[in-house]
Specification:
By secondary structure, this protein is α+β, with helices and mostly antiparallel strands. It has three domains: about 110 residues, Ubiquitin Conjugating Enzyme (Roll); about 180 residues, no CATH class; about 230 residues, Rossmann fold (3-Layer(aba) Sandwich), CATH 3.40.50. The strands form six sheets. Strands 5, 6, 7, 8, 9, 12, 13 and 16 form an eight-stranded mixed beta sheet that branches. A seven-stranded mixed beta sheet has the order 18-17-21-22-23-24-25, sandwiched between helices. Strands 1-2-3-4 form a four-stranded antiparallel beta sheet, covered by helices on one side. Helix 7 runs parallel beside helix 8. The model has no long low-confidence stretch (mean pLDDT about 90).
Length: about 550
Amino acid sequence: MSDRVSEINTVIESIPDVKLIKPFEPGKFDIEGCISVFVEGLEQALNFDVSISPQYPFKSHDTETIKFSNDDLLEYKHIMGNGSICIHTAHSPVLSEKLGYDIASVKAWIKKYYINKDTDTHYEHLIVSEKAFNGNHFAFFFNEVEYTFSKNQYGFVDYSIISNGVFYKDKINNNIVQKFYDSNRKILADVKWNFQLKSLPIGGGLFIFLKDAPSKNQRWIFDNWNEFETLLPQDFLKFLHSIEKTAAKEKGKKLPLFVGYNITDTEIHWQVIMLEIGNFPIYGEKINQQWLTMIDGNRSIDWAMTRNCSYKYFFGRGRLNEKLTDGKTLIIGIGAIGSIVAKTLARSGCTKVDFIDYDIKEPENVCRSEYSFFTGITNKTTDLINEMCLISPFFEPTNGGYEFSEAFDFFLKSHLTDSAIKTEIEKRLNEYDVIFDCSADNDLLYVLSQLKINSTLLNLSISNHAKHLVCANEQNRYEFISTQFKGNVLKFDIDDLHNPTGCWNPTFKASYNDINTLVQFAIKHINLRFEQDKALRNFVIETDDTDCLTIKLKEF
């Protein structure tokens, strides 16, 4: 330890414009000291209390293990409630080098936020202390609604529990906001989620829209109720009193209070305070012959976690081209290939996806598809719809159940010569912007080639051992696919197939990894063509395992 402390003191003293105010020495857990840092533009150097954790120079849980603190700087940007500034520096396993990086980051912070008083273009959320309420953490997820709240408007909220889980070492209760009502329980806004989320049991809460953020220095959320005294109107406090009086029989029950405020001219953020019926932070007081509801200001506030799960945030880290995300998609055949396509679309911002598949999911399907064992034997369409709803709160199938799939296959293959039915089928299929045929059904491939389909129709199929993925989308797709697989254009083993026990058709061999690699490569190519506004052509993706996987794409 003494060598480490000595090295830190020596390195700090060697850095230009940095001085030791208090030499570093071992504390209870960390090494602690005080330094001054000078940057051109300062009238005088700034002092920082510095604590260095045992893990330094390495991060701990993706957090820097050195802290530079000054309580006098709380009004500035990118500084925590404990006075420590936010720094993010380059990695180095060498203590002396890492100290140099970190001091340089401190100087950059001083220049940017202390001297120049820069304000970042992106919004920084208020700092909220995450703590348990009655031994349990709570999280609430909200979505943007088509309603404009007015300042100090208050009322009721419907919410639903979606899961109970673990938050680090504690329990957590996760919830979604369902509806907003005014104080007379007239509905104001219905929050849009998928049909499974909208069918969950309802619990009740309250809301108030303040418009202005309940914050100190526009950085830290209020800690105590006395900080709300100038923000909460008397009408709302009386409303709280009436709620507690009406719900007296439910004493001890939790009640979430949603506090809304603007973070832009149009965007609202909601923070939740956990209340307990029978223990609201209010009391009555008679002033000038009038009873008023007052805030018990000596009470701390129990904040829950909230997250904005609106579409733009949910898929903000990555979504596909608008032709896929804004359009309507049909997937025919949701086995290994089709289920991977479906889940990829769900995770990439697509919300309107329908399925056609009359098959059932068996346990042996799980190993190379997007199904789970837990649901047992069930219709593939039902199972995948449930899986998609678990991924995306915005997924909403309009068609695609078992009965629809069975009827589609029957009428398509038995009434091809019936012009009226053929026209109706064409009309239904042309309602979609993109159709993925992942059925590996040559009969269906032929029948579809006889129809006038204006949608982008993509046939995806994989050869044995996933050596190739063939995508046909042009009018000659039947001939193209037939040529590739039957005309010996693709050289692959047709004898080494998987033959399960029983009178089943053999199927191709390939792992989930093999199939997923090819499917993702194909979707990437298709999406790129959409982004470039270029016409899609038939293409083949070929792999070669001899050199640890080479992937080649050839267009025709």
